[in-house]
Design a protein that fits this description.
The structure holds 2 protein chains of 2 kinds. Helices cover 5% and strands 46% of the residues of chain A. By secondary structure, chain A is mainly beta. Chain A starts with a helix and ends with a strand. Chain B is of the alpha+beta class. Chain B has a single domain, classed as Electron Transport Ethylamine Dehydrogenase (Sandwich), CATH 2.60.30. Chain B is built from 3 helices and 8 strands. Chain B has helices spanning 2-11, 13-20, 28-41; strands at 72-74, 91-92, 98-102, 109-113, 116-118, 127-129, 157-160, 163-167. Chain B has a 3-stranded antiparallel beta sheet, with no helix packed on it. A 3-stranded antiparallel beta sheet of chain B has the order 3-4-8, with no helix packed on it. In chain B, helix 1 (2-11) packs across helix 3 and helix 2 packs across helix 3 (28-41). The longest helix of chain B has 14 residues, at 28-41. Chain B is globular and about 40 Å long. The chains are: A mainly beta, B alpha+beta.
Chain lengths: 382, 171
């Protein structure tokens, strides 16, 4: 008996010795690939209840479990605006800080993040401290000139665009856009803004960021009765602006000045009363198909209501090609940027991210619980 | 946020349902706002600091109150102020967006100035989003997407008021 116990104790000790944990290396920090996989997304959490603590999450929308989905995050203070480069491994955040957190001296800054490390690697001060502060808008932060220049929308309430040279990391100055807002890339090195007079204002820049030429369209936007939404889907150099009541207005941005094109109806068939709406409601995929978030029984003030379907259009025929009913109503829609099997990401009304096969509309999974609060806008990673 | 919304939904289901019948019932922000408003309004009922005029009815700390037809933000009445005053330690923005809302008590349309209270971070209570006649940011004076803490010492946004500044002209 004694021998048996002794033998058992020796065996147990031997097994324990075999399984002993080895000391691990301290200080290891992971990095990400320079080129993100096609189904990764950047989630802009504006943290509406804690605006100074905005975040950008890097998420793998293909993965099934939370630890596999979350790749990292970086910060974006005070309902920032963001963009990504496709020619440099960088992401850009236009944000605002105060020296004492919520008070003190204000600094507006364009912060440049490395996509591999998610660390801020450089910054350019925006000296006039007049950056637009408001609900996230992808056209408040626009890359032009093959991504050499970035335009940051200012509103105080006079409107202008700050011009920053991203290669030289240099603030070049401001272009006033009186009575107009936002910036849609236009021509070789320019932009178009949408204006309170119902017109659009186009500017071409010199290489040094100064104004070379400008032009205005006729007034065509009936802002009182059926205004254009301000966030178009852009395919090539054509911008597609939905209107509150359900039209689509094409604007050609290929030349130095915007040219207003065709207007056609998003409603086709038995869908009276349906309207586009939400927070991000019009996007396009790598093949140039248009996706529009829509809700039924529209009324005055429903233009920010969540959509319950996403409608797909072929811009060549201007016909609807599919209707994707959503599992849960959505506030914003986004697409990954691959042509083969793009994913559609919907910020649902419970502030989770529903992932769908974009072409078939099949629901795949929900990404949630990653620390998000109000992930208002999602971007397909470049 | 998900669990929070569900929790609050359970707590305020009946109030939410009531509000939903008369406001932007499909709006997410409206929905979130209503749940939060419901919770926050419970200890404040019937009327806390709100300075209502004699010709008004309704609960000024509820998102369906008539003055809030184009508001987007935290109701100052739930933040230490009232519908027409800012909470202590904040600063009222001199610039703002305007709405035109109909007072159900007299049937008249009034111009409502939604001045933000600034200098502290988000109040976080009674979020309310309704968008009657709201317009995109390119018509700023009618755009509730903009943080209107402009012309104040700080950009930090705390809550929004809804101040009667006049009657609207007949169309």
């Amino acid at each position: 008996m004694k021998n048996t116990l002794l033998a058992g104790a020796i065996l147990t000790f031997a097994a324990a010795a075999q399984a002993e944990l080895k000391p691990e290396q301290l200080g290891k920090v992971l990095t990400l690939p320079e080129k993100y996989p096609p189904h990764w997304i950047i989630v802009h959490d504006a943290t509406f209840f804690h605006m100074l603590d905005g975040r950008q999450y890097v998420i793998d929308a293909d993965a099934e479990t939370l630890p596999e989905q979350v790749k990292g995050m970086f910060n974006s203070s005070f309902i920032a605006t963001v963009n990504q480069s496709s020619v440099r491994p960088e992401m850009y955040v236009a944000e605002t800080y105060y020296t004492r957190g919520s008070r003190g001296t204000r600094t507006d800054v364009l912060t440049i993040y490395d996509k591999r490390t998610l660390e801020p690697v450089d910054e350019v001060i925006l000296p006039n401290n007049n950056r637009y502060s408001g609900m996230p808008n992808q056209y408040a932060h626009t890359l032009i000139d093959n991504e050499r220049l970035v335009l940051i929308f200012n509103l105080n309430p006079a409107t202008s665009l700050s011009v920053v040279d991203l290669e030289e990391r240099k603030y070049l100055g401001e272009i006033p856009i009186p009575g107009c807002s936002l910036a849609f890339p236009t021509g070789e090195r320019g932009f178009t803004s949408i204006c309170a007079g119902g017109d659009m204002y186009s500017v071409q820049l010199n290489a040094d960021g100064t104004m070379a030429s400008s032009a205005r369209t006729e007034s065509f936007n009936d802002i009182d009765n059926n205004p254009l939404f301000e966030k178009p889907a852009i395919v090539g150099s054509t911008a597609y602006f939905p209107t509150f009541l359900g039209d689509m207005v094409e604007v050609d941005l290929s030349g130095p000045a915007a040219k207003v094109g065709e207007r056609w109806s998003l409603r086709q068939g038995d869908d009276d009363g349906w309207r586009p709406g939400g927070m991000t409601y019009a996007i396009s995929d790598a093949e140039g198909q248009l996706y529009v978030l829509a809700h039924p029984a529209g009324y005055d003030g429903s233009h920010k209501d969540p959509g319950v379907e996403v409608w797909l259009y072929d811009p060549a025929t201007r016909k609807r090609t599919a209707r994707h009913p959503l599992k849960t109503p959505g506030l914003s829609i986004a697409l990954t940027r691959d042509a083969e099997a793009p994913l559609m990401i919907v910020t649902n009304i419970e502030m989770g991210l529903d992932v769908y096969d974009a072409k078939s509309g099949k629901y795949l999974r929900t990404v949630t619980g990653f620390g998000q609060e109000t992930p208002f806008v999602v971007h397909g990673a470049r | 946020m998900n669990w929070l919304i569900k929790q609050l939904d359970r707590m305020t289901e009946s109030k939410t349902r009531t509000v939903a019948q008369s406001t932007g019932r499909r709006s997410f922000m409206g929905r979130l706002a209503m749940t939060l408003t419901g919770v926050s309004a419970l200890p404040l009922l019937p009327v806390a600091r709100a300075q209502q005029q004699p010709g008004e009815t309704g609960d000024p700390n509820s998102c369906d109150y008539w003055r809030y037809c184009a508001i987007d933000g935290f109701l100052c009445g739930c933040c230490g102020g009232s519908m027409n005053t800012c909470p202590p330690g904040t600063e009222m923005s001199p610039m703002t967006w305007l709405g035109t809302c109909q007072n159900p008590a007299d049937g008249k349309n009034y111009i409502i100035s939604y001045n933000d209270c600034c200098g502290k971070t988000s109040c976080g209570a009674c979020l309310c989003n309704r968008n009657e006649a709201d317009r995109p940011v390119y018509r700023p004076q009618a755009a509730n997407d903009i943080n209107w803490c402009i012309g104040t010492k700080h950009l930090t946004y705390n809550c929004s008021t809804a101040i009667v500044v006049g009657t609207a002209l007949e169309q």
